[in-house]
Amino acid sequence: MDDKEINALLDRILAPWVRALTLTPVKVDEEGATLRLPFSGGLRHAGGVICGQVFMAAADTAMIVAISAALGGFKPMSTVSQNINFMRAVRKGDVLITARVLRMGRNLVFGEVELFDETGHMAVHATTTYALLD
Fold this sequence. Notes:
This is Thioesterase domain-containing protein. Belongs to the thioesterase PaaI family. The chain is an alpha+beta fold. It has one domain (3-132): Hotdog Thioesterase (Thiol Ester Dehydrase, Chain A, Roll), CATH 3.10.129. 26% of the residues lie in helices and 39% in strands. Strands 1-2-4-5-6-3 form a 6-stranded antiparallel beta sheet, covered by helices on one side. Strand 1 and strand 2 (32-37) form a beta hairpin.
């Protein structure tokens, strides 16, 4: 999937508030997907750090792109579970989100997502399970 296909996919399937995060593809292939979350002060809560909800949505989105790339295109799917650990506060700077498929079954897909702050430190780690609906 090239950048144009990925952006079209995100425009088609994401809720408007998730599209407003302006996630952009950095690298996508059959091994996984890396997206960039551009920093915006509006992503921070009153404590001055980027909200966990932002990171959960970004992780979910990156995993959908990674699964789509592994499948050779988007297929209907649903998040079954997302277990997320917030390891470091992020106050500023772009965040890189790297998602990879760990196991692709007939009906379930297991994945892992890592989010890195502007200094390259892992800030968030997530494991995911998706159901393929088609």
